[in-house]
Amino acid sequence: MDYKKSKAPSNTVTRDVQELWKGTGNIYESVAIISKRANQISVEIKQDLSKKLAEFASYNDSLEEVFENREQIEISRYYEKLPKPTLLATQEFLDGDVYWRDPSKETQEEEEL
User: Fold this and answer.
1) Phi, psi of 3 (to 5 degrees)
2) Maximum distance among all alpha carbons in the chain?
3) 8 A C-beta contact, residue 10 and residue 81
């Protein structure tokens, strides 16, 4: 996923608490969902960055390393400019792009039937 094209802000934004708990009915549950999604996004971004930087891995020192470092620096700067995973996850949650379910509520509903 191209996180650069996300509508998420790249800096901290004050959020309306009322908007956060509308989907779940509980602010704490909403924050837990957002944090779990932020962890998933963080892992995805780290894997992408590691994959791209692994292409530059060399096991011998040479003058070519100086030129390779420029490319590595450009890649690193791109990832530094991305919005933080928590901001991306919050934006996804507010847009309704995050799927979640609560297995404990599902079992309670089944028991009542």
Assistant:
1) -75, -15
2) 72
3) yes
